[in-house]
Amino acid sequence: xxxxxxxxxxxxxxxxxxxxxxxxxxxxxxxxxxxxxxxxxxxxxxxxxxxxxxxxxxxxxxxxxxxxxxxxxxxxxxxxxxxxxxxxxxxxxxxxxxxxxxxxxxxxxxxxxxxxxxxxxxxxxxxxxxxxxxxxxxxxxxxxxxxxxxxxxxxxxxxxxxxxxxxxxxxxxxxxxxxxxxxxxxxxxxxxxxxxxxxxxxxxxxxxxxxxxxxxxxxxxxxxxxxxxxxxxxxxxxxxxxxxxxxxxxxxxxxxxxxxxxxxxxxxxxxxxxxxxxxx
Length: 280
Known about the structure:
Elements: H1 8-27, H2 36-50, E1 55-60, E2 67-70, H3 73-78, H4 82-85, H5 102-119, E3 126-134, E4 140-150, E5 153-160, H6 162-184, E6 190-192, E7 198-201, H7 203-209, H8 213-216, H9 221-224, E8 226-227, H10 236-241, E9 247-254, E10 260-267, E11 270-271, E12 277-279
Antiparallel strand pairs: 1-2, 1-5, 3-4, 4-5, 6-7, 8-9, 9-10, 11-12
Helix pairs in contact: 1-2
């Protein structure tokens, strides 16, 4: 397996082990038989960090972490050469609104460090956090970082999730816009699956039925808004599932409070991705 094919978890584990091994060897010269093992470890560490698309960084372990090491992948993704970042505080590049995400995280890490010093035992701790970082052009990138304690330093293994994050935000915005249209239409509208479960209702339908949308969602349609069509061959859902493309009828629907409301019903298929009806 090539180093670049390793999973992020394998990469983090190996980087931590190699870094600790290097520091161990450097700090104990009497344990070295020759310079070759240390050189081999350094070379392997360099190959892993420099041949991955992940952004790898090592910082000081403090409330305002300072870059100690930065992988070359930062230049390709963020535009920064390693020497432009090393020695500078990481907070200089983080979006002002996202800096607060790091405070509780760093406090937990520092508390864990104190615990390690008091007990003499190592404790593993790994956190995943998403935040925005500015590139050399002034654009904001969404990074997802896995952060590990590495003796007196912090190891960040990050990936750029800007495209995915913006895609999700775009979908949420489109959904919000559709829901606004859905809720402001003058007709009462509800979506029901083929098992007669209410999936969605608009505000007009909620007022008509006298029941809030959240209370209706997940319940059977005939439980919250009953009529003589329910449990019969003339049920609009039954007709649609049997092949009808449009059902129009007049009926009287009974609310749960006993009030009867005359309604003109129009039902059309609610189709899945394969085009088959999955409800109305």
